[in-house]
Amino acid sequence: MDYEAVIGLEVHLQLATESKLFCGCPTKFGAPPNSQTCPVCLGLPGVLPVLNEQTVDWGVRVACALNATIGQIMKFDRKQYFYPDLPKSYQISQYDQPLAQHGHLDIVVDGQPKRIGIRRIHLEEDAGKLLHEASATESFVDFNRTGVPLLEIVTEPDLRSADAAYQYLTELKAILEYLDVSTCNMEEGSLRCDTNISLRPPKATTLGSRVEVKNLNSFRAVKLALEYEATRQAAALDGGEPLPQETRLWNAKAQRTEPLRSKEEASDYRYFPEPDLVPFTLEAALVERLRQALPELPAQRRSRLQSAYQLSAYDAQVLTQSRVLADLFEGALRCGASPKPAANWIMGELLAYLNAKGLEPSAVKLRPEWLAHLVELIAQGTLSGPMAKAVFLQMVERGLDPVQIVAEGRLAQIVDPGALERIAEEVVQANLKSVADYRSGKVNAFTYLMGQAMKRSQGKANPQQMAELLKRTLHNDGGPTP
Amino acid sequence: MAGGELASKTIHELRALIDAGTISPQELLDDLLTRLAQLNPSLGAYIDIAPERLRRQLREEFSADRRGLLWGIPITIKDNICIAGEETTCASRILRGFRPPYDATVIERLRRAGAFLIPRANMDEFAFGSSTENSAWLITRNPWAPDRVPGGSSGGCASAVAGDLAIAALGSDTGGSIRQPASFCGVVGLKPTYGRVSRYGLVAFASSLDQIGPIAKDVTDCAMVLSAIAGHDARDSTSAPVEVPDYVGQLGGSVKGLRLGVPELPREGLNDEVERAIAQAVTVFEGLGLEVEPVQLPNIGKSVAAYYIIATAEASSNLARYDGVQYGFRAAVHRPPSTVHSELMEMYLRTRTEGFGAEAKRRILLGSYVLSHGYYDAYYLKGMKVRTLIKRDFDEAFRRCDVLLMPTSPTPAFRLREKVDDPLQMYLSDIYTISANLAGIPAVSLPCAFSGEGLPIGMQLLAAPFREDVLLRTAYAYEQATKWHLRAPQVRGER
Q1: Residue A386 belongs to what domain range?
Q2: At residue A54, what are phi and psi to the nearest 5 degrees?
Q3: Position A481 in a domain
Q4: What's residue A329's pLDDT?
Q5: Contact B237 A271 (CB under 8 A)
Q6: For B304-321, what is each residue's pLDDT tens digit?
Q7: Interaxial angle between packed helices A463-476 and A432-439, expressed in degrees from 0 to 180 and rounded to the nearest 10
Q8: How many Cβ atoms from other residues are within 10 Å of residue A76's Cβ?
Q9: With contacts defined as CB-CB under 8 Å, which chain A residues touch B88?
Q10: β-strand A211-216 against B259-263: which pairing, if any?
Q11: Domain-located, residue A412
Q12: Is A129 in the same domain as A196?
């Protein structure tokens, strides 16, 4: 039977604020273990949390970007459980009055627009990190991550396919990147995702057994895990097998989900309002100010690029998937580049380069005016196709203006007839056998001689001119014309 | 001088002597330490004393330039207030060996005022108790009678101040833990308004009820210590950005015409002598020109129930961090982990079972229960609603009165071991002190009589939030008119 998949996503996002949620420690990733801690985030006896207001501002901005209703009161609660990476044995989180609720995010699935509801968005502190691999007998705890601010974003179960889930995550990441609130890096753990999926017969109104899947390290893993689960659950339902409500882990190596070892006891988190923090009103005026100051978001930018520059929906999508790329594109246009070539360079060479090196767009220091200059140099004829690609590579790797690269003297195309003639002469002199071959009718010999000419000019000879001059030299140089 | 001559003086007396150059801080400390050596073995006010280290600290760390209100004065600190580098255990096995890497805000402020710190006054474990019998380390005796409790949980502080083993002390009060021992030991104990004094560095019992406050020989000393520690602290989100008045300067102000409210109270277990003492105090206040009137606090009878729900709930959460992972005691897991638990769970269970005393466990269980799924509404939420009613009663009372008068404790000091096996009886001894914590208002206990057996009886004055000025002024006027504070116990072992 064909079942309908009902899918929800829960994203935990680390906010890249200056300091942690309740203390002044830095939030930077990769510091030596336990070097970014203080009595407060270590939960030592006697310490108290103090709210970092920047985290609230950023949370509100994200909530506005996701069309959610901002709560009027900002209140925190304690979520209590025991684990070595949780120093206070409770996490300060938000329970019944989250920062925001009832938002939505629009995606496109199979060419159709779909609105995904966002149930809630709330702030909470991150836990530390446990390290098990360093020793056979002991585990270690690194508390650098304890207290880092997290924004939890929970969807309604509105997704109906693994692909839709992937689309949601991609669009969400783009929005978050545009807001510049997080490094959004799943490998580093600044963006984490759990998913839940249940199946039901088509047209059913109740939900089936829900399975939660954790340990997902990439958007692709989310998609694969959901596809796997859909198949597994369908087979179980078809076979009349029981399908318990459970939590499973994604095993990336084996490409399957596996049941989590059963927990010691059911979790009763014993939520109650955090008495060390005083609830306060989120001023409507502040919220409005933050909303007005939002940058143009991906969806808006896509429409604008399509209408302003006659870009296709596909091109607009690719260019806006990252704010860096979109800024580069529009920046180049402002410096005089025309849209089509600028778009092609970004979507073609640049993305290919980034993908090959596994880099994010922000990793490359490419200035818009350089891209504009490159386009201009090609339009002028100073750079030919293959040369332009070489210049592009240098531009990206050395971080230099292409005008400067060309001016270094080694990459300008040679168009001076005198110089080209000289090259032609030299090639003929050095390759008498090939010349003879050519004159005796072997056309391939010309190709070989052209290659030699290009090589001798270090690829800088203008190909059309070189070919012409080479032919002339071959014919003028005595000997019969074929 | 023989031991105790200087130790028996008040801060303000010593201030004058030190400023005049008549005595040095070193002499003062020596005198105090001599008396401590003599009497702490029998009184048990301090968990631990390191006299040579203290002398050395005074010699090496004390700057001659620092001139503050408390310069050169030793202040005794309860074992639940963090002093950097000092062992701070809250009288619990589970924190044995724990040395905080930071100073509590009140400690920083005392240092800035020039005080010298004497750590580790004994207490009930994690402040759970009314007799200091719940300490994991030793019991403390009442200097007025060695077979009597000093009260709790700041029993070590009160006993030390009363017995002149301390000049003054900082204790903490969640349900009466400063005021009740002050009452039992015949000294002055003040619980400030919630938010008046920073809680940063106070090992938390109940976050919405705890306050640090002074225990001293008289009202003037109390005002001096409060001045040094009060005020907003950015590290405590619950501390109030309210200006600190000149408590000391205003002490002698007139009390004529102030309105004194006497509430009708639950009389369960109220001792006759205590009742008479309060009646006599009313007469004194009338003589001082205050207008006395009865007031109603209709919901006060629900205080103990509401308190033991809210306080234990918060305590169960605040004590969850003592799990053997980072610091303090961790039980050894010898035998191979059972198939029922993981090794981690085994460690947690053993550490907390072996590390906590009986009363701590009792409160953690109670608190976890009232917060558990399905019971939150019936207990914790309801308790908080009752709390609001109690607060409103006080708000109403303070519209008509400046100060309220009531007993501190239903009885004078009871005997050691008398209530330790009956937790409910122990809880009921807090019946008059608890409501001030629930309402967040300031309250002070000062001596107002002695029982037929020669035990101190304390009376309690309460005021509106942040009106410690009126509170202390009223207490001062009473004290100066009656001189109860000049009586001192004859402690066995004295010369």
Answers
A1: 296-407
A2: -60, -35
A3: no
A4: 94
A5: no
A6: 999 999 999 999 999 999
A7: 80
A8: 25
A9: 45
A10: unpaired
A11: no
A12: yes
Tell whether B100 lies on the interface with A, counting CB pairs under 8 A.
yes
pTM: 0.89
HSE-up of residue B331 (Cα within 13 Å, Cβ side): 19
Number of domains composing chain A: 3
What confidence score (pLDDT) does residue B1 get?
39
**Is A301 a member of any domain?**
yes
CATH superfamily of B11-250+437-486: Amidase signature (AS) domain (3.90.1300.10)
Structure-model confidence comparison of residues B424 and B130, the more confident one:
B130
pLDDT band at A480 (very low <50, low <70, confident <90, very high): low
Does A12 lie in the same domain as A138?
yes
Of chain B, the percentage scoring pLDDT greater than 90 comes to 88
- Whether this model's ipTM surpasses 0.90 comes out as yes
Specify whether A160 is located in the same domain as A284. Answer: yes
- The CATH number for A439's domain is 1.10.10.410
| pLDDT value for B321 | 98
What DSSP string runs through B40-95? HHHH--BS---HHHHHHHHHHH--SS---TTTT-EEEEETTB--TTS---TT-GGG
Judged by a CB distance cut-off of 8 A, whether residue B378 touches chain A is no
Residue-wise pLDDT tens digits, B271-291: 999 999 999 999 999 999 999
| Model confidence pLDDT, tens digit, residues A217-263 | 999 999 999 999 999 999 999 998 888 889 999 999 999 999 986 55
For CA atoms A460, A465, A468, A472, give the dihedral sign: negative
Looking at A289, A315, A342, which one is the last position of a domain? A289
> How high is the pLDDT of residue A478?
55
Residue A299 makes CB contacts below 8 A (sequence gap 6+) with A106, A171
Size of interface A-B (CB pairs under 8 A): 93
Catalytic residues of B: 78, 153, 177
Is the same domain home to A310 and A255?
no
Residue A304 and residue A198 share a domain = no
Average of per-residue pLDDT values in chain A: 91
Same domain, A168 and A235: yes
Note whether A157 and A256 are same-domain residues: yes
Q: Over chain B, what is the mean pLDDT?
A: 94
Residue B380, chain A, CB below 8 Å: the answer is yes
**DSSP 3-state assignment of B462?**
strand
- Mark whether A347 and A332 lie in a shared domain: yes
Is residue A482 in some structural domain? no
Q: Which of B333, B371, B382 to mutate to test the interface with A (most CBs of A within 10 A)?
A: B371
Where among A289, A304, A328 does a domain terminate? Answer: A289
Contact state of B320 with A89 under an 8 Å Cβ cutoff: yes
3-state secondary structure chain A: CCCEEEEEEEEEEECCCCECCCCCCECCCCCCCCCCCCCCCCCCCCCCCCCCHHHHHHHHHHHHHCCCEECCEECCEEEECCCCCCCCCEEEECCCCCCEEEEEEEEEECCEEEEEEEEEEEEEECCCEEECCCCCCCCEEEHHHCCCEEEEEEECCCECCHHHHHHHHHHHHHHHHHHCCCCCCCCCCCEEEEEEEEEECCCCCCCCCCEEEEEECCHHHHHHHHHHHHHHHHHHHHCCCCCCCEEEEEECCCCEEEECCCCCCCCCCCCEECCCCCCEECCHHHHHHHHHCCCCCHHHHHHHHHHHHCCCHHHHHHHHCCHHHHHHHHHHHHCCCCHHHHHHHHHHHHHHHHHHHCCCHHHCCCCHHHHHHHHHHHHHCCCCHHHHHHHHHHHHHHCCCHHHHHHCCCCCCECCHHHHHHHHHHHHHHCHHHHHHHHCCCCHHHHHHHHHHHHHCCCCECHHHHHHHHHHHHHHCCCCCC
CA distance A268 to chain B (A): 6
Closest partner residue to B237 among A82, A271, A277, by Cβ? A277
Of A231, A263, A230, give the one whose Cα is nearest residue A246.
A263
